[in-house]
Amino acid sequence: MTSDAKPFTGVAPRPRAASPSWLRRAGVPAVQLAILAVIIAAWQLCADAHLINGQLFGTPSGIVKSARQTIADGSLLTDTWLTVYETITGFILGTLLGSVLGLGLWYSRFVARVVEPAAVAFNGVPKIALGPLIIIWLGAGTESKIVLAFVSTFVVALLAAYGATREVDRDLVTLLRSVGASRWQIFRKLLVPSAMPTMFAAMRINVGFALVGAVVGEFISSQHGLGHAVFVAGNLFDLNTVWLGIIVLSLVAAIMYSCLAFAERALVKGRS
Amino acid sequence: MPHLELTGISQAFRRPDGTLHRVLAECSFGIERGQFVSIVGPSGSGKTTLFNVIAGLAAPQSGSVTIGGTPVDGPSTRVSYMLQKDLLMPWRTTLENVTLGLEIRGVPLREARRRGTELLERYGLSGSENVYPSALSGGMRQRAALIRTLVLEPEIVLLDEPFSALDYQTRLMLEGDVRRIMGERGCTAILVTHDIDEAVSISDRVIVLGGKPASIKLDLSIELTIEGVRTPATAREAPEFRSYHKAVWEQLDVTLPGAA
Q: How far apart are the C-alpha atoms of B255 and B258, rounded to whole Å?
């Protein structure tokens, strides 16, 4: 049971190959930034020297110019805000409804057995394929993007939460029953907290899915949003604006991951 | 009147092919208040089945269980149990794990925390109240599980091989603690085990199960001559220890499966 005690082998652990001390002192972020700087500089130099076609690949200076322009005319902020709004709304709705329903299936094995095959089948469908339907039904506005982000995340959250309830230690259920716990108490004090880590794992996957849902919805039909901006710029061979959209999208994803990691640290306790 | 009385307990399960698998046949015995009794038998002998029947987790096919004359027909607040697995919830601190049962029974939080803290202090876990189980050693975890059992103030404590996952030293120490604590609190204790040494050294009485379906093959009172305090170590040195051990061993008639 004492998993923290290392087996005694009589041999001292071999020190790992040491990286140079200046590198370790600088730390991981500094190295990452340095690599990024080298790539950007090389990219710019190659374009300036006409080693690569700046028109086809875009250039760092062109991306900065495009950023200045779109910040100045306000379109970058409105597009970003819109896409973030669609993504987060769809993500929250999908995660909440999916998790609640998935956990709720624990209450009825009958309903669970009815729902499970449908959920598994729907999970296999690329949700993007639903895009045309949803846009025809809901129009080209934000609603259709929210719904696309929602359907992209809902089933993942549902199957994760339901799967987690099935992993719960049966002896713990018996223990709670033996002290007189009601079904609701077992749900609240055992099912929900023990499903939490799995549900967070599903949420990490769903950040990406929600973004794909919103952006692809904008690709198909929209007037605004980062997906719209990238799509239009691509058609106009304005590669710098495409890059800008990609960079902002990855920042959005990174920020969402950080928020999620923060929530996980606050809500999932006692994991070593 | 015995504190706990089993009368003609039989239990059977239906196999998937429809035939009846009889596990226990006509087991009857009574246990006096404050007695420490071990039930020993080879694996698959129905020890855990008997445990579940006494705990009220499973109804027997026939026969009855009474505690202080009252029939058991479901989990009772007078009985509390402890298993080989500590079953501590990783997301709860030691204290929160200990007070779980009180919380479910609706004891006010402050009162529950007070009672939990008091027992943790008394039984050697002070300082671990606000630590998560992942930071505790196997022995400490099992001790926390014991305190979670005791805080419910049961009259009868059922122990299903609670020491078998521990290393030898921790095990001896915890066996001694459990016997002493049961005595202090006046609890009637029933230990299910397959370890003869453990059963003889810790108990006032050893009941051996055997046969298929299992019935009581031996009911042995343990009286050890010990100078000083009875601990698992001193009990093993008592002159009678070997003969009790031998008597139980002979009744277990251990054979390899298929060799008989």
A: 8
